[in-house]
Backbone:
C-alpha cells in the first residue's frame, strides 16, 4: 500500500492524530512544535487517548457483566504519570515485579486491586508481596511450596490464584505467545489440579482465583474463546471434585492493536461478547458460583496513545539501497528487532510530498540490526525532517536501554492542549552515576 493510503487508513482509527496543513498534530498540538521545543528523540503521549481506550475497554465488559474490573498490565508502560491517569479511571494493576508493586502502591493503588503475576520469583520477592496483601498468582508447584513455606513460617495468610496454561496456539509472534504447550508460564491441567488440591489443605491460603494469559498482540477473539472454554471447564472441575469455589476469574490481557493499515485489530465489544457468553454458559454447565471477572490489558490501553519523535540526521544512498538515519535506535524502539514489529512512520513537518522513495530507516547504534523500518515508502526524505514512529506507547520506552551509552528519551504528555514533561531526558551524569570511576 502506498504511503498516502497507509497513513490515511491508519489515522482513521486514531482521533488524537490529525493532519492539518500537511503537518501532523496530536490533540491539536503540532508535533513539529513539540520536537522544536523539547528536542528529539521524544515519546509524546495523548492523555485523552489513554483515557478513551480505558473507557472503551471497561465499558465493553461492564455493560455485559456487572462485576468486572481492570488490572492494567503496567509492564506495557509503567510511567507514573500514566499510572495516575489510569488510577483516576478506576483501574487496578497487574504487576510482574516487586518494584512494579512498590510503584503502584506509592501511587495509591489499593493492594486489593493489585495482582502479582510472575515466573521464577525468589522467596524474598514472594514474601514482600504476601506481606503487602496483594493477590499472588502462583505459577508452578514449586512456587506453591515456596508460598506455603513463607506463610507457615511467618504465620501470615495469602490470597492466591493459579495461572492455568490452556495450551492454546495463538497467531502472534513466537516471543509473545504464552499459553502454548511449550510455554514456560503457568500450570498445565494435571499440575494445576494437584496445586489446587494442595493449596486447599493449607490453612494460611485463601484460594480465590484462576488466571490465564495466552499471549500478546492477538487480533481475533477465537483463541480467547478456546482458552476460556478450557479454563472455565477446569474451574468447574475443581469446584465439583475438590469443592473449591473460585471467586475471581482472570482472563488476562493480550488484545492486539492495528499497527499497520492492512492489519486487523480486535474489536473489544466482540471479545467481551464472547468471553461473557462463555462465562454465563459455564456457570450453568459447571455449576460455578458468581465471580468477579478481571482483565489485564496493557497494549490496548496505551500503545496507540504515543508517537516517538526522531530527527533525520542522514540520508544515504548506496549503490544498493537508500537509508534514512535517525537519532534513535533499537535501544529506544526494540519491537522491530525483537518481534519483527511494524511501526508506521510519518514525516510530521510535511506529511505528504510529491516525490516518494523506498528506504530502510536505520538507527544511530553501531549494529547492522539497528533497523527500525525496512523497505518503507516515504515522501522523499530530507536531513532535518522529523519522523514519528506511531503506536509506541506499549513495550517501547519500558524496554529502552543505554546501549552504546545512549540516554533514554524524554517523555511528554499532552493534556488539554498543553505539554508536560513526564520523564526527563537522561544525561551523561545519570549514565555514569552507577559506576565506580
Ligand atoms: C500476565 C500478563 N497479563 C497481561 C499482560 C498484558 O498483555 P497485553 O499488553 O498484550 O495486553 C501481560 C503481557 O504479556 C502478561 O504477561
Residues:
Amino acid at each position: 500500500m502506498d504511503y498516502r493510503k497507509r497513513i490515511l487508513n491508519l489515522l482513521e482509527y486514531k482521533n488524537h492524530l490529525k493532519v492539518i496543513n500537511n503537518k501532523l498534530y496530536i490533540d491539536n498540538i503540532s508535533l513539529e512544535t513539540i520536537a522544536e521545543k523539547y528536542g528529539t528523540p521524544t515519546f509524546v503521549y495523548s492523555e485523552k487517548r489513554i483515557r478513551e481506550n480505558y473507557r472503551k475497554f471497561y465499558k465493553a465488559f461492564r455493560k455485559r457483566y456487572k462485576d468486572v474490573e481492570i488490572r492494567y498490565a503496567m509492564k506495557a508502560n509503567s510511567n507514573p504519570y500514566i499510572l495516575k491517569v489510569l488510577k483516576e479511571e478506576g483501574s487496578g494493576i497487574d504487576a510482574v515485579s516487586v518494584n512494579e508493586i512498590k510503584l503502584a502502591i506509592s501511587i495509591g493503588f489499593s493492594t486489593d486491586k493489585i495482582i502479582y503475576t510472575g515466573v521464577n520469583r525468589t522467596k524474598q520477592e514472594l514474601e514482600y508481596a504476601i506481606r503487602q496483601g496483594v493477590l499472588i498468582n502462583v505459577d508452578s508447584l514449586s512456587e506453591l511450596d515456596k508460598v506455603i513455606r513463607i506463610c507457615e513460617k511467618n504465620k501470615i495468610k495469602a490470597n492466591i490464584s493459579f495461572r492455568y496454561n490452556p495450551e492454546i496456539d495463538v497467531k502472534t509472534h513466537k516471543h509473545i505467545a504464552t499459553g502454548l504447550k511449550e510455554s514456560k508460564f503457568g500450570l498445565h491441567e494435571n499440575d494445576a489440579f494437584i496445586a489446587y488440591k494442595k493449596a486447599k489443605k493449607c490453612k494460611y491460603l485463601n484460594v480465590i482465583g484462576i488466571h490465564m494469559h495466552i499471549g500478546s498482540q492477538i487480533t481475533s477473539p477465537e483463541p480467547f474463546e478456546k482458552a476460556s472454554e478450557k479454563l472455565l471447564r477446569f474451574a468447574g472441575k475443581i469446584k465439583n471434585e475438590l469443592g473449591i469455589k473460585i471467586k475471581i476469574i482472570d482472563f488476562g490481557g493480550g488484545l492486539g492493536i492495528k499497527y499497520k493499515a492492512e492489519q486487523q485489530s480486535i474489536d473489544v465489544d466482540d471479545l467481551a461478547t464472547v468471553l461473557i457468553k462463555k462465562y454465563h454458559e459455564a456457570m450453568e454447565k459447571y455449576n460455578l458460583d458468581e465471580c468477579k471477572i478481571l482483565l489485564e490489558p496493557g497494549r490496548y490501553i496505551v500503545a496507540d496513545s504515543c508517537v516517538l519523535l526522531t530527527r533525520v540526521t542522514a540520508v544515504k544512498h548506496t549503490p544498493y539501497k537508500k537509508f534514512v538515519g535517525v537519532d534513535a535506535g533499537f535501544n529506544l524502539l526494540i519491537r522491530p528487532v525483537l518481534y519483527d514489529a511494524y511501526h508506521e512512520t510519518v514525516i510530521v513537518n510535511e506529511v505528504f510530498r510529491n516525490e516518494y522513495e523506498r528506504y530502510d530507516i536505520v538507527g544511530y547504534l553501531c549494529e547492522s540490526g539497528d533497523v527500525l523500518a525496512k523497505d518503507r515508502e516515504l515522501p522523499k526524505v530530507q536531513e532535518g525532517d522529523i519522523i514519528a514512529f506511531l503506536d509506541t506507547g506499549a513495550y517501547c520506552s519500558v524496554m529502552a536501554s543505554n546501549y552504546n551509552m545512549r540516554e533514554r528519551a524524554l517523555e511528554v504528555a499532552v493534556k488539554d492542549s498543553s505539554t508536560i514533561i513526564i520523564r526527563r531526558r537522561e544525561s551523561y551524569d545519570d549514565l555514569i552515576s552507577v559506576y565506580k570511576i
Remarks:
- Residues 305 and 351 are 19 Å apart (CA to CA).
- The chain has two domains: 3-46+303-432, 118-297.
- The pocket of pyridoxal-5'-phosphate is lined by residues 73, 75-76, 94, 117, 213, 216, 252-255, 296-300, 394 (CB under 6 Å).
- The longest strand covers residues 306-317.
